[in-house]
């Protein structure tokens, strides 16, 4: 099954990383959410990109140099504003099927602060951190049990020292470098594979056909029906194929 991951929520309808965008993505059927985390000067974890502070919110400085109250007044109302991570986590955790979160962090300090919030909500198994290689090294050193995703966009795969140093749970790759053979090889070594950022429908079909574990998209409304259809087709095929005793048939030796 390929999970449909909404990049910063449903940004086709709402401003990225806001509560309306998150809720709309969940309502559209997103299995997971990819968001950006930053820590304010007074220690609150918020969901925003630094570069979007000026572009979208008109604040010409980084989140780390502002206090939560400074960010709270930037929105037009209580909904259209920069939310805290706690608020987004609460939205993701609602209902019988909580959504997973892929959180891009700018530092290990942000990951540590976010991890404390995650622990309070009992969602440690549903949150994964990503960021620069240097940041992930620090995260791994300070949060040995945290889920992490190794970002990659180069044609050459990471060397053994990177895999051993970071010990990631997932390979978070630019979809343009992926092939079916590469996906299978990475999965064979025990890593899940996430492809980003796939917004064109024909490319969604092609990448899903490689068997990736998750697709990140800014076009969640088109991706969800595709992944749901593939899931139903897989379930139907499994029901029609007779089971084999362990070690016999189905390529087991």
Describe the overall structure.
The chain has 253 residues and is of the alpha/beta class. The protein has one domain: TIM Barrel. Helices cover 40% and strands 18% of the residues. It has ten helices and nine strands. An eight-stranded parallel β-barrel has the order 1-2-4-5-6-7-8-9, surrounded by seven helices. The model is unreliable at 233-253 (pLDDT under 50).
**Rg computed from alpha carbons, rounded to a whole number of angstroms:** 19 Å
| CA-CA gap between termini | 25 Å
Q: What is the strand arrangement across the widest sheet?
A: 1-2-4-5-6-7-8-9
Round the mean pLDDT to the nearest integer and report it.
90
Strand content: 15-25%
Global outline:
globular
Biggest beta sheet attributes:
8 strands, parallel, barrel
Q: What is the helix tally?
A: 10
Order of helices and strands: EHEEHHHEHEHEHEHEHEH
CATH class: Alpha Beta
The CATH H-level homologous superfamily: Phosphatidylinositol (PI) phosphodiesterase
Number of structural domains: 1
CATH topology: TIM Barrel
Regions with little confidence, pLDDT below 50 for 5+ residues:
233-253
């Amino acid at each position: 099954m390929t999970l449909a991951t909404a990049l910063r929520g449903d940004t086709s309808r709402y401003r990225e990383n806001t509560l309306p965008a998150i809720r709309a993505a969940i309502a559209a059927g997103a299995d997971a959410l990819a968001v950006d985390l930053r820590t304010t000067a007074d220690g609150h974890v918020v969901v925003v990109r630094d570069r979007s502070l000026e572009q979208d919110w008109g604040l010409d400085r980084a989140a780390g140099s502002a206090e939560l109250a400074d960010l709270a007044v930037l929105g037009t109302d209580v909904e259209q504003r920069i939310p805290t991570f706690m608020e987004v986590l609460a939205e993701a955790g609602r209902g019988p099927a909580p959504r997973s979160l892929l959180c891009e962090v700018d530092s290990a300090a942000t990951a540590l602060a976010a991890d404390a919030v995650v622990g309070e909500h009992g969602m440690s198994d549903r949150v994964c951190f990503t960021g620069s290689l240097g940041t992930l090294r620090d995260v791994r050193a300070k949060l040995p049990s945290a889920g992490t995703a190794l970002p990659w966009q180069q044609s050459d795969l990471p060397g053994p020292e990177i895999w051993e140093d970071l010990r990631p749970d997932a390979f978070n790759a630019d979809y343009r470098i992926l092939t079916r053979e590469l996906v299978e090889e990475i999965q064979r070594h025990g890593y899940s594979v996430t492809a980003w950022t796939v917004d064109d429908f024909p490319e969604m079909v092609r990448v899903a056909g490689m068997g990736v574990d998750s697709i990140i998209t800014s076009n969640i409304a088109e991706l969800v029906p595709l992944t749901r259809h593939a899931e139903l087709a897989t379930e139907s095929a499994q029901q029609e194929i007779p089971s084999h005793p362990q070690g016999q048939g189905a390529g087991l030796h």
